[in-house]
Amino acid sequence: MSDNLEQLVRESLRTVDRSRRIAFAATWLLFFVILFTLGFLFARARGDGQVTAKMLWVAVTGQMAFVGICMALLAGHVTRMTKAVLRAIELGRNSRG
User: Fold this and answer.
1) What is the pLDDT of residues 49-70, one digit of tens each?
2) Per-residue pLDDT for 12 more than 80?
């Protein structure tokens, strides 16, 4: 029974680590997509007064979108990994009894 419990915990930790790597890669990919999108928009803009205000608005909006999406990724990651660990604990208890 002890080997089975160790295997369940090990598999849960592997799932947590794999999901952490996926979330990390998704965050960096999102960062570069927003960075290149903003760079493209700024390169196409012309330099009068109204465009400068619009560029500032676009930059702030892009930053807020990035932070919001990263927060959603983090919340999803924490929820998923908590469920995986709790499921492993529950399976370990059931296999003992």
Assistant:
1) 666 777 778 788 888 888 888 8
2) no
pTM above 0.85?
Answer: no
| Cα 96 from Cα 60, distance rounded (Å) | 54
CA distances to 23, 31, 70, 76, 86 from 96, in Å = 34, 46, 39, 31, 16
| Cα 18 from Cα 44, distance rounded (Å) | 39
Q: Which two tokens stand for residue 58?
A: 């676009």
Q: Which amino acid is at 65?
A: A
Cα distance between residue 70 and residue 30, in whole Å: 9
Distant-in-sequence contacts of 44-49, Cβ < 8 A, 24+ apart: none
Q: Above pLDDT 90, what percent of the chain?
A: 0
Q: For the chain, how many structural domains are there in total?
A: 1
- Host domain of residue 21: 2-96
Closest by alpha carbon to 73, among 7, 3, 21?
21
